[in-house]
Each structure stands twice: as structure tokens, then as C-alpha cells.
Amino acid sequence: MHQWNVRRGIASSRMLCGLAEEYGLTAEICLAGTGIRTKDLDNPAGEIDATQEFGVIRNLLTALAPRGVSDIELAIRAGARYHLTTMGIWGFAMASSATLRSALAVGLRYLDLTYSVNRIWLEESSSSACLVIDESGAPPDLSQFVVLRDMAAVQTINRELLATPVMPQAVSLRYPYRDHAALFRETFGQLPSFSGVRNHIELAPGVLEAPLPQANELMRQSCEDQCRQLLARRRSRAGIAGRVRDRLLQTPGRLPDMEAIASELNMTSRHLRRLLQAEGSSYRALVDEVRQALAEELLSTARMKMDEVAERLGYAERASFAHAFKRWKGVAPSAYRS
User: Fold this and answer.
1) Residue 303 pLDDT > 80, yes or no?
2) CATH topology of domain 236-337
3) How are the residues of the chain apportioned to helix, strand and coil, as percentages rounded to the nearest 5?
4) Where in the chain is the domain with CATH 1.10.10.60?
5) Integer Cα distance of 329 and 100 in angstroms
């Protein structure tokens, strides 16, 4: 399941409109054709689909390209605007964690609560810790924008978590170099390597153990509980997809096939498939969504063995579950739990 299948807060679009105003654009230009109204931007509880935010980004890039403003500049400037205080309960959960490592664990666990449309995970070795950013699920025309926005936001968030600048050991991008050397150095303290095999920010491993100045375990637990509840609410669906999802949740270890679900809904499987497609979904995607949500919950809160988690979710083998989980989250279930 791509993160952008989950509804998200409107704060990111509001910040993009604020960035546009610095370049002389109005919010109306940025919101044209997205279904977002200017008054919606002032609703702190407002939610939108990722496709609506993609529209905002495209409008911003299209309007400023004739003025010589590149997508690289806009992406990095946008990422610098994503402060912990603008990220809601997700930001508070990270800030109240004990160390940068635990903050990143919380942040990545509830990444679906953010503006990001990428998969992000942490890889460690004896000499480094890499935050890997996989944009393969993003629209191709916006892929470089969403990667650079995330990378710049990582720099902003790490600096605010530790109350001091944290420059990476190395930065790698899959994209070719296109100028803006000064902006890259300002943001990352160096010029990234380009045309690499993946996008990542490499930190010194010792940085992960750095204590956070606002650490508060009771606050972290409370904020993480709220993150869990908010994510469950945003993942809920209406329409026929919601009915199918609710039915799948009733028996997560014995998931019926689409024909059985269609029969329960008094329709043919072909008709059910068409209805789900009209809502931008599919039976397979809903099965994955239900299994992922339950897997995250069980790994985070239940003291079950990995074999038991796999069985609870209807997998015949632990290896099959581990493979599916890594496809969803980018890390093995054991790493996610720890």
C-alpha cells in the first residue's frame, strides 16, 4: 500500500501555498483544479487526498517554471518549512522521545500521518546509519520533487529534535546533477553524489544515541497512542471499499476471496471489481491494507511471537509474512518491532 492512499492533513498544502506567495503567486493559482478551497486551508482538522496535494505541487511548478524557478529550488525550500510544530501529534511524539533513534522509530512507524508519499526506512552498519528514501510509488513527474522535499525536511526535523544542526556524512541522489550547488551545500553541508542507485542521507551512527532535550516518556506514550488512533481513523474508508474493508477486518486470519465477498454483498465479483476501481481501489489493495494495519498494531502492542503474528494475519509461513511486510514498510517485521 502506498502511503498516499491514506488521507492526510491539509497543513502541507497550506505550507506550499505559503511558499508560493513568497514567489508572488496567489493561493487560488496553487489550488486551481484540486478541489481544495482557500477557506479549507484555515481548517486545522482538514484532510485531503494525496492526489489533491499532487495537484497543488504541479500548479506551483507550472506557474513558476516560466520565471526560471526550478523544481529543485522549490522542493528544498518546501522541505525547510516542515517543522515539528507544523506536523501535529506526530511531531510531538518524536520530540518527546528519549533519543534520536527512538524519535526516528516513532516517526517512521507513523509516517502515513505526514505529508510524505515515499517509503522511508533506516539501515544501519558499523560505520553509518542511512535513511533511505524510495520514491517508486510517487508520480514520475514529481518524483525528484518529493525526494528532495523529504531530504530537506529530514534536515529541518533533526536540527529541531536535537536543538543543533546535524550535517550528514553523505547524501546520495538517483538523479543527475542540475546546478544549485550553493543550495545543496547550504542544506546538507556538502554537494550530494548524483546518479546513484538510491536516495539516502547517511548519518554518523553515534548521532542516533544523542539524547533529545524535550524527552518525556509519558508524553511520548500519550502522543503515540493518539498517532495510532488518528492513523486508524484516516485509514477507514467509505463507500463499497469501506464495506469490504470492514468485512475483512472481521476475520483477518481467514480472509475470504473476492467471490465470497461479492456474494455476501449480493453482486457478482465482476461488478464488485468495477465498483472498487471507480473508488480508486481494488480487492488486493484492501487485503494488503488490512493486513498491514493489523501487522503494525500487533508488532507495536502485542507480545506475540513472529510466527503467531503471521498466523493471525492468515499467512501459512513466517517468511511469506516477512516478505510482505518488507514490501509495505521497507524493513523486516523484527526491525520494525525493535
Assistant:
1) no
2) Arc Repressor Mutant, subunit A (1.10.10)
3) 60, 10, 30
4) 236-337
5) 20
Q: Options 3.30.70, 2.40.30, 3.90.1520, 3.20.20; which CATH number does 3-209 get?
A: 3.90.1520
Question: Taking 70 as the threshold, does the pLDDT of residue 138 lie above it?
Answer: yes
Distances (CA, A) of 283 to 3, 240, 290, 334: 17, 11, 11, 27
The whole-angstrom separation of Cα 208 and Cα 204 is 8
Residue keyed to cell 484532510: 47
Sign of CA dihedral 248, 251, 252, 254: negative
**What is the per-residue pLDDT across 231-268, written as a single tens digit (0 to 9) for each?**
877 777 668 888 888 888 888 778 889 999 999 999 99
What lies within 8 Å, CB to CB, of 255 at 6+ separation is 248, 287, 290, 314
CA separation for the pair 108, 102 (Å, rounded): 10
In the chain, CATH 3.90.1520 covers 3-209
